[in-house]
Specification:
The protein has 170 residues and is α+β, with helices and mostly antiparallel strands. The protein has helices at 22-29, 126-133, 138-165; strands at 11-18, 42-47, 59-66, 70-82, 86-91, 99-108, 111-120. The protein has a seven-stranded antiparallel beta sheet with strand order 1-7-6-5-4-3-2, covered by helices on one side.
């Protein structure tokens, strides 16, 4: 039976131009708790192994909740951290992650393009189990998962933009 990740890596992304410089946005995209304010699935995270913030090799534990899949926890590994341009982490095994998540910031004067991308696989995940249980629904399950992720990603990007475009903290 073919799993969803064989020969493909389902991907979704959202993008928005933010009226703020990349350095203003950077702290928001690297704050483990902030996305939980906007996402219905991501519930928050905590740094592991004494890490206090993002750096290549740092690990964190993420908590997620979804109507269809219940509650679950993941161990994530930061694989790219280039302030204020790119922040990337993988879920699960570094060599065969369940998913790869990436924020990129592209500065253009006083504005910045904020992109949030998710690539599923090649490692197995809850989606893999759902496809194995209902192989006849493979394409519909992948499409549903990508739409669900994209909705939460849009909410996170819009929330970050509102914060970054708002007044600077005193």
């Amino acid at each position: 039976m073919r799993d969803y990740y064989e020969g493909e890596r389902p991907t979704t992304a959202v993008e928005r131009t933010v009226a703020a410089q990349a350095w203003r946005i950077w702290p928001f995209i690297t704050d483990l708790e902030l996305p939980a304010r906007f996402s219905t699935e991501y519930q928050g995270g905590t740094w592991l192994d004494g890490a206090t913030g993002p750096a290549v090799g740092a690990r964190f534990r993420g908590h997620n909740r979804n109507e269809m899949m219940g509650d679950w926890y993941t161990t994530c590994h930061v694989i790219e951290c280039r302030p204020p341009a790119c922040y990337t982490w993988v879920v699960g095994d570094v060599d065969e992650p369940n998913a790869t998540w990436r924020f990129t910031l592209v500065a253009d004067g006083g504005r910045t393009t904020l992109r949030f991308e998710a690539v599923l696989g090649p490692g197995r995940s809850g989606l893999t189990a759902a496809i194995r249980a209902r192989p006849d629904k493979r394409d519909a399950l992948i499409a549903w998962r990508l739409r669900d992720l994209q909705g939460n990603m849009r909410a996170v990007v819009d929330g970050i933009a509102a914060l970054a475009e708002g007044p600077s903290p005193a």
